[in-house]
Design a protein that fits this description.
Structural class: alpha+beta
Largest sheet: 8 strands, mixed
Oligomer: single chain
Radius of gyration: 28 Å
């Protein structure tokens, strides 16, 4: 007996019973993006590995441990399944010279891949919606991104999310802060775990993001980046806070907020929840003014965010929003040679009128077909025998209300079903 084929661990099927929830989410997101004028961009799932090493950072968890990278033996290219969407989006903008037309508001969605330990809300193939605003330098676009998120939570029926904001300053202020961090952690090296010790001289800011409870006291006493901010970054951050208050967006300042990707500067933010266990962040982003130049484009400011679809759908469910699957308008039951041809004609006529119709296939008597009509959830059963077919009529039977069935002309049925 052949071995049963199974999906790769951490890469899950989305079955019909839940696919309608994804479709609801996707329709909502499309409407939401259109409200703010963001245009769709679609990039390949596979990119050159070097793109992510250069953009995300060589000394990051994603590049060191999680990225699905391989060699294409046909031409010896080092390739990777995309672990996130920003680098691919920026690469496409540079390659096709989109900023020549002016600043761009772009969005994307799709599968991303990271080799992590699968757990609730975290999979090896996961899905993100990302929004990128390229060519905008002021804090106003940062605020727009955050306000957009707040609007989406309302549209999805999600409550209880908290917004945390922070600043990473300029590259120059980060370099100054980095030197202070290294000196501080060198003096406290005995309190660092193996991972932090390894990052001490390569990426000390990531130590601040450690969840190791034994390190929290030493992290809390570490130098604060906000104390080393340059004047322009300080004004940017203060203006951001002022504008968020003007828009009645509540937030908490998190001075230890460190994104896991090297390309961020100035504004960083996360939307977090207590409802998903350890996976508390459902949406995160910020400003990355140096990334376009870093991967070969002309210098230009940019900012954006990405959100995890699986986590947001889990929150939609937890917040009690009921997403119903689409309900067919009619299920067509038929028996007889003349009836089959007439049933096909009836189904297509109704579909042209905008109705959702299931045409019974697979044979069987009227009794068994009616059982399937009932299970389908359809509002009506349309019954066609040879007598109906010869007369150009159908029998309409309501399935969800106690009303008698009616025999009517074929061309009158569309209006009746849609009412």
């Amino acid at each position: 007996m052949a071995k049963v084929a199974k999906a790769v661990r951490g890469m899950n099927d989305i079955l019909p019973e839940e696919a309608h929830q994804w479709q609801f989410f996707e329709r909502t997101v499309q409407d939401w993006l259109a409200m703010y004028g963001y245009r769709s961009i679609r990039t390949p799932i596979v990119e050159h590995t070097d793109l992510f090493v250069r953009s995300i950072g060589e000394v990051t968890d994603i590049v060191e441990k999680e990225m699905y990278s391989f060699v294409d033996h046909l031409n010896n290219d080092r390739l990777a399944l995309r672990p996130e969407g920003t680098a691919s989006c920026v690469r496409a903008v540079i390659e096709h010279n989109l900023l020549y037309e002016g600043p761009q508001r772009l969005s994307y969605s799709g599968a991303m891949f990271r080799h992590e330990r699968p757990q609730k809300g975290r999979y090896r193939q996961f899905h993100q919606v990302g929004v990128e605003a390229l060519g905008y330098s002021g804090p106003d676009i940062d605020v727009e991104l955050i306000v957009m998120c707040a609007r989406l939570w309302q549209m999805l029926g999600i409550t209880g999310l908290r917004l945390e904001i922070g600043t990473l300053g300029s590259m120059e202020s980060r370099a100054l802060h980095r030197a202070k961090l290294i000196k501080y952690f060198e003096q406290n090296v005995k309190h660092l775990d193996e991972d932090a010790s390894r990052r001490l001289h390569t990426n000390p800011l990531r130590i601040l993001d450690s969840k190791n409870p034994k390190m929290q006291s030493v992290i809390e006493q570490a130098p604060r980046l906000i104390d080393d901010l340059d004047e322009a970054s300080r004004i940017h951050f203060e203006t951001l806070q002022f504008m968020l208050r003007e828009q009645d967006v509540q937030f908490e300042i998190n001075l230890r907020l460190v994104r896991g990707l090297d390309y961020y500067n100035r504004t960083v933010f996360e939307w977090v929840t207590d409802r998903l266990g350890a996976q508390s962040t459902v949406c995160a982003g910020g400003r990355y003014d140096g990334l376009i130049e870093q991967i070969g484009g002309k210098p230009a400011p940019a900012c954006g965010f990405a959100m995890g679809v699986e986590r947001l759908l889990a929150l939609v469910h937890q917040c009690g929003k009921e997403i119903m699957p689409p309900i067919p308008d009619a299920y067509i039951v038929h028996q007889g040679k003349q009836a089959m041809s007439f049933a096909w004609k009836t189904a297509e006529l109704l579909r042209e009128a905008g109705c959702q119709v299931i045409l019974h296939c697979g044979g069987g008597g009227f009794k068994s077909q009616m059982k399937k009509a009932d299970v389908s959830g359809a509002r009506y059963a349309i019954i066609i025998g040879d007598d109906e077919a010869l007369a150009g009529e159908v029998t309409l039977k309501p399935l969800r209300v106690a009303t008698d069935q009616t025999r009517i002309d074929l061309h009158a049925i569309g209006d009746l079903i849609k009412t």
